[in-house]
């Protein structure tokens, strides 16, 4: 997608372009409503700031499209393709992989949702360390961290979509 095609798309088409980045309708609608953008940088900056106060319900809806860290996303959806690219660099030893699996389960048991972290550019060991640290959080401490990670993922995905 080019910036021009995004700016010129119908509202429904623009929403479809944004949905794989973060399936949060309020965020999608805010970005769609302020088009046209003068530059890709302006679009990315706005996307980073749009709907800053994501609710737990919005986050949980978006997380429904995210596999566990270390698991390969299945299917041909845009979300699955993004996830496979983002986690492509997360290779690990068997020991680290087992620790990630155990950590994912502990996180889900404690917080009731999948562990979310921007995987792109991080090693499996870095992700594991973050997971172990975040397991010490309370749900109230963790929610804004999840929102921040989801926002980072959304903006990176949007950046990637613009480069296609």
Domain module tally: 1
Biggest sheet details: none
CATH superfamily: Oxo-4-hydroxy-4-carboxy-5-ureidoimidazoline decarboxylase
Which second-level CATH architecture applies? Orthogonal Bundle
Classified by CATH, the class is Mainly Alpha
- CATH topology term: UraD-like
The overall pLDDT average reads 88
Number-wise, the strands total 0
Based on helices, strands and strand pairing, what is the structural class?
mainly alpha
User: Helicity level, as a percent range?
Assistant: 55-70%
Helix and strand arrangement:
Blueprint lengths: L2 H6 L2 H8 L6 H9 L6 H10 L6 H8 L14 H9 L7 H18 L12 H11 L4 H25 L1
Helix pairs in contact: 2-3, 4-9, 5-9, 7-8
Describe it.
This protein is 63% helix and 0% strand. It is mainly α and 164 residues long. The chain has one domain: Orthogonal Bundle (UraD-like), CATH 1.10.3330.
Briefly, what is this?
This protein is mostly helical and 164 residues long.
For the structure shown, list the relevant keywords.
UraD-like, 164 residues, elongated, mainly alpha, single chain, 9 helices
